[in-house]
């Protein structure tokens, strides 16, 4: 089947005008669609970015970066920010590559369409005026024929009655006949002109204009297809980056080492003190016996041990630290020997 | 380096309490983070879905589904809706698999942590009361020794002056000596008990409790890691589906055939009429000549041609349709023959 608008749709000016107008409406609608899509991406990116920012560590507690789980979370937030950047880039591409270009293209297309339909209307006006010319010369010919016929009648009738009047009427009839002949020539000229115009109109002008409209329509559709491909392509380009971000998040999650973290806690908090040894006996009865056997050997030995041994903190602080809990308590008695 | 909290951090009860509390804070913070992430996905999905719905065709104009560009756009919207569904599923997975589970786990963890630190406090109370027992028996021994010593002094002094009083004082001194001996035994018992308690405290109870706290902390970190992996995994699962949606969008865009669409326009609008042929000559002078040569052959032939020929529309409608434009106009004259 032929699909040439110029030959197939020669009588569908109004419908083509409507159809191409609908096409441009769609183009504008599609542009708006992509714009709204870009806005959604932008708002999504904004939310993701502020989520990442909100949870970003403020380093106000322990030096958190020494713990693998903490570092992993920071890395996740970093990747999340990367995702936001990707979405922003996508939105920018949609706006720049598609929305802007389609908006500009739509303006061009509107201008082109207007010009084609103006050409159509001009051709229409030309054939109309050619038609009017034909009509008017045809009517003149019709009128002149009638008048010539009437004059001939009169002449024929008078001719039988009166020679002088008959001559005059015959002259009038001859003049009318000549005028009719002139009108006939005019009419034939107008008719030939109209038929020539009409042929050119339907076989050259209209086909050319409609062919241009069809080309324009095909370019519009081609352009829609391109925009749709660009849209899908722009989103596709994001995928590998998103995939890398997710890989990095996964790696971060897998880099978490609970054992290493609890070892870090030891490094941070270990006091270096040993747990207290046995409390020694304090022999208050010693003074009683000292009179019998004076000996400072054991006392001296205790003193030596106390100095060589790493002190545990609550001796210095005069506080008891069982299990690391601070408990207000009487100072430990000075250590003595078990008697 | 050893990383055993039970032996390395025996004196860091307060710090471990703070550190594990911070760990639980983080868990809650992370849960909140995932919740907010899911909310963002849900809001994004909602926007995408309503965009798809908003632009979905309402079939109010021509039967649009006959055009490839229109079908392609509908397919794009369909895929967009599919993307929204994927995002909703993602949000649901984040809420269900991560947020709910972590919330439940955090409650369990809080209960477990509380129980470990209660055990710690109980052990602390026990060693404190053992210490108090030791202190009190030591003081009693100290007092009794002093009293015995004083009684011995008195007895020694009196012994030299008065035999009767001396005997009484000696008996008192002996009783005091015995009481001191009793206190000494008590003190030794308390001391042994305390040293035994203290040894058990620092070498069994504390190590066991702190080891449990460390295990708990390592499980918490492990769990954080799992949650982070789940988060990345849940997002990763979406990628192939998104990729398929984008492939489908690309296919839709590539299925656009401008030539096919303009051929469709021909099918929709073609009237089937041929463009008008030449307008024929109407010979108003014929009646004048008919008297000379009467012949209806050409008129009849014209009539035949008019009936066999497919009429073009403006003849029937008494309207002129040049280029398909409706123009109010005089009816075409009945066709005659060129004379």
UniProtKB/TrEMBL annotation, chains A, B:
Domain of life: Eukaryota
Single annotated GO MF: lipid binding
UniProt protein name: F-BAR domain-containing protein
Domain F-BAR: 3-261
Keyword Coiled coil tagged: yes
Xref: SUPFAM superfamilies: BAR/IMD domain-like
PANTHER family: FCH AND DOUBLE SH3 DOMAINS PROTEIN, FORMIN-BINDING PROTEIN 1 ISOFORM X1
Species: Oreochromis niloticus (Nile tilapia)
InterPro entries found in the cross-reference section: AH/BAR_dom_sf, F_BAR_dom, FCH_dom
Keywords: Coiled coil, Lipid-binding
């Amino acid at each position: 089947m032929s699909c040439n608008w110029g030959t197939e749709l020669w009588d569908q000016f109004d419908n083509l005008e409507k159809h191409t107008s609908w096409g441009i409406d769609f183009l504008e609608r599609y542009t708006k669609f992509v714009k709204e899509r870009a806005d959604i991406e932008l708002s999504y990116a904004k939310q993701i970015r502020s989520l990442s920012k909100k949870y970003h560590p403020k380093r106000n507690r322990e030096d958190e970066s020494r713990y693998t789980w903490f570092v992993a979370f920071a890395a996740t937030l970093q990747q999340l920010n990367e995702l936001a950047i990707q979405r922003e880039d996508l939105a920018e591409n949609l706006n720049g590559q598609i929305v802007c270009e389609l908006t500009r293209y739509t303006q061009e297309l509107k201008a082109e369409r207007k010009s084609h339909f103006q050409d159509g209307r001009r051709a229409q006006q030309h054939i109309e005026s050619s038609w009017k010319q034909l009509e008017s010369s045809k009517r003149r010919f019709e009128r002149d024929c009638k008048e010539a016929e009437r004059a001939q009648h009169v002449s024929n009738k008078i001719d039988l009655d009166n020679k002088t009047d008959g001559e005059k009427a015959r002259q009038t009839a001859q003049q009318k006949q000549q005028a009719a002949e002139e009108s006939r020539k005019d009419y034939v000229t107008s008719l030939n002109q109209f038929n020539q115009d009409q042929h050119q109109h339907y076989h050259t002008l209209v086909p050319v204009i409609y062919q241009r409209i069809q080309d324009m329509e095909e370019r519009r559709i081609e352009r829609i297809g391109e925009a749709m491909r660009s849209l899908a392509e722009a989103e596709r380009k994001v995928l590998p980056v998103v995939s890398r971000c997710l890989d990095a998040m996964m790696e971060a999650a897998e880099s978490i080492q609970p054992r290493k973290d609890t070892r870090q806690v030891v490094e941070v908090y270990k006091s270096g003190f040993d747990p207290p040894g046995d409390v020694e006996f304090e022999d208050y009865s010693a003074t009683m016996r000292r009179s019998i056997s004076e000996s400072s050997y054991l006392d001296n030995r205790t003193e030596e041990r106390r100095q060589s041994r790493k002190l545990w903190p609550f001796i210095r602080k005069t506080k008891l630290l069982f299990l690391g809990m601070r408990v207000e308590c009487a100072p430990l008695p000075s250590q003595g020997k078990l008697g």
